Amino acid sequence: MADSIFRNRENLAWLKLRGIRISGPKLGRKPKVVSSEVKQVERADNGERNAIEGSYGVTKRKYGFGLVRTKLENTTKSAIILQFLVMNLDRRMRFFLSQFWIRFIDLMQAVNLVAGYGFQSVQ
After folding, report:
1. Residue among 78, 77, 76, 82 nearest 63 (CA)
2. Domain coordinates in residue numbering, the chain
3. Distance in angstroms (rounded) separating the CA atoms of residues 24 and 49
4. Which is it for the CA torsion 97, 99, 103, 108, positive or negative?
5. What HEC string does 48-90 produce?
6. Tens-digit pLDDT profile for the chain (123 aa)?
7. What share of the chain is helix, strand, coil (3-state, %, to 5)?
8. How far is CA 59 from the centre of its chain?
């Protein structure tokens, strides 16, 4: 997946040399007749690309990735790495908290069931 701005002859030659397939329109004129197989591949590639672009949008809105205004290459790389670190920590923390609450609620329900049958908790 690549933006159309990166689809130039030099980059396409580099990708072809390494056996990497790139999705998107070919350089030059569009063909008059396009087979249904090519259309299906393009549609699948566009769907995958939309999912990736959507995650970039979330990263910019939710995590402030669009606010990175560094000028030096090293500081830009550091800022990007830190943003992805924060994203991964947030994702894992949400998963951990959801699992914690699920287990906590199950435990509370079990305690209430035991208390409802007249059993006393050991202290």
Report:
1. 82
2. 1-67, 69-123
3. 10
4. positive
5. HHHHHHHHHHHHHHHHCHHHCCCCCHHHHHHHHHHHHHHHHHH
6. 666 777 888 988 998 899 988 877 777 787 788 788 888 888 888 888 788 778 778 888 887 777 778 888 888 888 888 888 888 898 899 999 999 999 988 888 887 766 555 555 555
7. 70, 0, 30
8. 9
